[in-house]
Design brief:
Number of strands: 7
Largest sheet: 5 strands, antiparallel
Number of helices: 8
Strand content: 5-15%
Low-confidence stretches: 21-38, 314-334
Radius of gyration: 47 Å
Helix content: 55-70%
Order of helices and strands: HHHHHHHEEHEEEEE
Mean pLDDT: 81
Length: 411
């Protein structure tokens, strides 16, 4: 691979030499008038070729060094400082990003608080006891938002904006590290060319190669020395810069919460007498699903118009009320009675009716936690089979199980 790279490099060198000669050679007089290259375009093309040539040789040198086919200048102290700088840069960018995100969250919180307060205000009528409390809560959220605006202004002025400006130094160091890497590669490349000429005793090219190497080394050393001073200095500067930022963050957020608590204290006194736990035992006011008319159809009515019988939706309607005899509206001749004069049969005695089991109405929803318990919803009517102790045996929709007696009321 190294041999192939060397051959390819030689070909590229020849090509770039030809291009540079073409763009720098004077044109014949008869061709000058027809030329499409102005002096400016010549210079631009020449610069482009020069930059491309340097880029190619730098890439080649970097590949050879990564493969161990060329020597590489290694500065352990410099590399350690670069690693520490990158970790420090990442931490500063993170705190800057999160501080901006924090202010956005406070803004979203303020909007949500105002919306909830408005919803409560719209919920109550003016005659309700808590109408004025809801109105006061709306005003309270406006004061809370004013406190939030003060927090935002102070945080941006004394924390976010200075940190964003402070990050500019990190961007400068990042760009200089990249430039120093290019200078290192050039220095190593010119040093390798010089050694190759010295080894092959190409005397007339050695002075120029020495000059290139010395210039490249001087440029690398200057920037490398500067970075070895600036990177530790920037790291050691972190406390001096971020101490005031930390103080601003703590002070500003504490003041915001202090003002918010003070503003909402008056609203709390208005609702202090309300038992907040009542919401968990609030009874159902809507007819239960089991008893709702949406699941039942009237199949027969009494003379006064009240329902005589009904069936669940989805079940077939009783045949005796599903149709009306058309002949009932017109008189017709009565057919002959074949049982005329026959004595009436004696009816068999009816069996004694079984006693009606008590029923109870569910006051609350109950979700069973054991296999032998029976679940039900508030408003359901249950048949009670046994009333022993705190747990009764009941039946609902063909299912039997134990129910807590304090969840139902006998009807």
């Amino acid at each position: 691979l190294a041999e192939d790279l060397r051959r390819f490099e030689n070909v590229l060198k020849s090509f770039f030499t030809f291009c540079c000669c073409f763009f720098s050679t004077s044109e014949p007089p008869e061709f000058t008038a027809m030329s499409s290259f102005s002096d400016k375009s010549k210079a631009t093309a020449s610069d482009f070729l020069s930059a491309t040539k340097k880029g190619f040789f730098r890439t080649t040198q970097k590949i050879k060094q990564s493969l161990g086919k060329a020597e590489q200048t290694i500065d352990i102290s410099y590399n350690q400082e670069v690693d520490r700088f990158r970790a420090h840069y990442k931490a500063v960018k993170r705190i800057n990003k999160n501080s901006i995100k924090l202010l956005e969250c406070y803004r979203d919180l303020s909007v949500a608080q105002a919306n909830v307060a408005e919803d409560f205000y719209n919920l109550y009528e003016s005659k309700h006891a808590l109408y004025n409390a809801a109105l006061k809560t709306q005003d309270t959220m406006k004061f809370v938002d004013n406190a939030r605006i003060q927090l935002d202004e102070q945080m941006r002025k004394d924390f976010v904006d200075p940190t964003s400006k402070y990050l500019g130094q990190f961007k400068d160091i990042k760009n200089r590290i990249a430039a120093n890497e290019v200078r290192r590669i050039d220095m190593d490349r010119y040093n390798e060319d010089l050694r190759s000429l010295q080894k092959n005793s190409v005397g007339h090219k050695i002075p120029m190669a020495e000059t290139k190497y010395k210039i490249a080394k001087a440029n690398y050393t200057a920037l490398n020395t500067e970075l070895l001073r600036d990177m530790p200095a920037l790291y050691e500067d972190r406390d001096k810069f971020f101490d005031p930022c930390m103080a601003t963050y703590v002070t500003a957020t504490a003041e915001y919460h202090r003002q918010s608590a003070k503003t909402t204290a008056d609203a709390i006194s208005v609702i202090a007498h309300i038992d907040r736990g009542m919401v968990h035992d609030h009874p159902r006011v809507v007819v239960s699903t089991e008893l709702s008319a949406v699941h039942h159809l009237v199949t027969a009515v009494n003379e006064d118009g009240s329902a005589a019988s009904s069936s669940s939706v989805g079940r077939p309607v009783s045949a005796e009320v599903s149709s009306v005899s058309a002949a009932s509206s017109y008189p017709s001749a009565a057919p002959a009675n074949p049982n005329a004069g026959r004595p009436m049969p004696t009816p068999a005695p009816r069996p004694a009716a079984s006693p009606r089991l008590p029923q109870a109405k569910a006051l609350f929803d109950f979700t069973p936690s054991e296999a032998n318990e029976l679940g039900f919803g508030a408003g359901d009517i249950l048949t009670i089979h046994s009333q022993n102790g705190d747990w009764w045996e009941a039946e609902l929709r063909g299912h039997k199980g134990l129910i807590p007696r304090n969840y139902v009321q006998l009807v």
